[in-house]
């Protein structure tokens, strides 16, 4: 049997792109996509790879200790690449409990199974939001040594899971890496997030909500650059180390929205300023030099990446319309439950 890779959350946005990337790049690897298929889990994106012999789908809850242990006892997983998480900040404000259940307890269950059954590497995919916020000084950046100071229930749950991963390395010598990325964008982004939400609203001539004054800054990372980074960390990351992944593409939320509107030839009158998000962090910006020392560089400039992303949504209107309508949620039953 060849190398077996368990990817949790592989029906989500970043995890889904990573699954496709790995299936295509490593035909001699067995790629197992484990996902519970909650509201953000979409399998329709994998239509092109689901018939490939090295792709396998497993429906399971990462917080279900019995099922996870059974899976680890049946499969000889070499790597665990852990994306599975509740990730929408707004949802964490209205329902923090599910974020603790999935992001903290689920991670602990996976870590325990990885420890008990033995793996080559556990890569925990986290977020720059665990660092809190930066001011608007363009010379300041998050580094791997920046103190963890999360400001939302979502980022607090991710910070908690980061600390558990570190603890399993320090206490049990579990081989781990943690990656902390900036905001991702690209194909198959769930339509409730800023960029796909804006694209779908603008195409339908609907108002685009912008929190506060729109001046909050994010560092945008193309999802394919992120996949390449995780692949590198998985194979060459130094055991126990944290690696920040950033795109060198800082933009205000308002700049992002206006770029999309102007690219699509619509009026900026579609912008609707709404009450600011609770605990809305001012700015995120990453110094990825530690990862770059391994040989990684982002390949997408924001101008190129956002243009390609907008075109992808134009070319794949059927996909995101099925997501918005909820039709995608029937795919598992129709394809996998026959």
Automatic annotation (TrEMBL):
Co-factor(s): NAD(+)
Keywords in alphabetical order: Lyase, NAD
Catalytic reactions on record: dTDP-alpha-D-glucose = dTDP-4-dehydro-6-deoxy-alpha-D-glucose + H2O
Domain NAD(P)-binding: 6-309
Family statement: Belongs to the NAD(P)-dependent epimerase/dehydratase family. dTDP-glucose dehydratase subfamily.
GO term, biological process aspect, one: nucleotide-sugar metabolic process
Organism whose genome encodes this protein: Planococcus versutus
Extent of the signal sequence: none
Broad class of enzyme this protein falls into: lyase
Protein name: dTDP-glucose 4,6-dehydratase
GO MF terms held by the record: dTDP-glucose 4,6-dehydratase activity
EC number: 4.2.1.46
């Amino acid at each position: 049997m060849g190398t077996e890779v368990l990817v949790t959350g592989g029906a989500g946005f970043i995890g889904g792109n990573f699954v496709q990337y790995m299936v295509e790049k490593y035909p001699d690897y067995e790629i197992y996509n484990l996902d519970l298929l909650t509201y953000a889990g979409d399998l329709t994106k994998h239509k092109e790879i689901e018939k490939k012999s090295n792709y396998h789908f497993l429906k399971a809850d990462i917080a279900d200790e019995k099922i996870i242990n059974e899976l680890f006892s049946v499969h000889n997983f070499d790597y665990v690449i852990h994306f599975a998480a509740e990730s929408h900040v707004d949802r964490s404000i209205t329902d923090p409990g599910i974020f603790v259940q999935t992001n903290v307890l689920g991670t602990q269950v996976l870590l325990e199974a990885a420890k008990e059954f033995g793996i080559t590497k556990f890569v925990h995919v986290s977020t720059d939001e665990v660092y809190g916020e930066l001011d608007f000084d363009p010379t300041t950046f998050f580094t791997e040594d920046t103190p963890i100071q999360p400001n939302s229930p979502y980022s607090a749950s991710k910070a908690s899971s980061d600390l558990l991963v570190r603890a399993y390395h320090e206490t049990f010598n579990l081989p781990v890496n943690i990656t902390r990325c900036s905001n991702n964008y690209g194909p198959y982004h769930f339509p409730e997030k800023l960029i796909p939400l804006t694209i779908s609203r603008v195409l339908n001539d609907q108002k685009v909500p912008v929190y506060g004054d729109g001046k909050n800054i994010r560092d945008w990372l193309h999802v394919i650059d992120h996949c390449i980074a995780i692949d590198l960390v998985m194979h060459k990351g130094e055991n126990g180390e944290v690696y920040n992944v950033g795109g060198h593409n800082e933009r205000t939320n308002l700049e992002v929205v206006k770029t999309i509107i102007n690219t699509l030839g619509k009026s900026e009158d579609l912008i609707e300023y709404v009450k600011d998000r609770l605990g809305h962090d001012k700015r995120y910006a990453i110094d990825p030099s530690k990862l770059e020392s391994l040989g990684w560089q982002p390949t997408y400039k924001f101008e190129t990446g956002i243009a390609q992303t907008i075109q992808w949504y134009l070319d794949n209107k059927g996909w995101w319309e099925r997501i918005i309508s909820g039709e995608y949620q029937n795919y598992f039953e129709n394809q996998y439950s026959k």
